[in-house]
Design a protein that fits this description.
- The protein is built from 4 helices and no strands.
- By secondary structure, it is mainly alpha-helical.
- The chain has one domain: Orthogonal Bundle (434 Repressor (Amino-terminal Domain)), CATH 1.10.260.
- Helix 2 crosses helix 3.
- The chain is globular and about 25 Å long.
- The C terminus is likely disordered.
């Protein structure tokens, strides 16, 4: 099953679309502002429940992004 791949640009674009600060998005997702910052800098990528929550928030906000399948691990 292919899941949307959330990269730094998509996360930043979603936050901008929502008109939220990093702190406000973090509060909605139940995470820390520092985590959002690290995602937006490309230091880390959201996984598991965080990636799912981002997808749900994006869908509800009618945010359009190009969903690229995550690369399969060899």
């Amino acid at each position: 099953m292919n899941r949307p791949h959330w990269d730094a640009g998509h996360i930043r674009a979603l936050r901008s679309h929502l008109g939220l600060t990093q702190s406000e998005l973090a509060e909605r997702l139940g995470t820390r502002q520092q985590t959002i910052s690290e995602w937006e800098k490309g230091m880390y990528k959201p996984r598991g429940a965080s990636a799912t929550l981002l997808s749900i928030v994006a869908e509800r906000a009618k945010f359009r992004y190009e969903a690229t399948p995550e690369k399969q691990r060899s």
